[in-house]
Amino acid sequence: xxxxxxxxxxxxxxxxxxxxxxxxxxxxxxxxxxxxxxxxxxxxxxxxxxxxxxxxxxxxxxxxxxx
Length: 67
Known about the structure:
Blueprint: H1 4-17, H2 22-29, H3 33-40, H4 47-56
């Protein structure tokens, strides 16, 4: 993943796979549905917000060298 849009798309896929609506995920993260929408569209967000969403989806950030 190279862009905020790529990350947002992946979060959307994972959310949908988990059977959650944007509102469901927002409630799990104690944020507004509009914030989840912004993340999924590749908008600018705080890292802490991204981490909250990833934790709610049982995901984590991993760093690796570029290929």
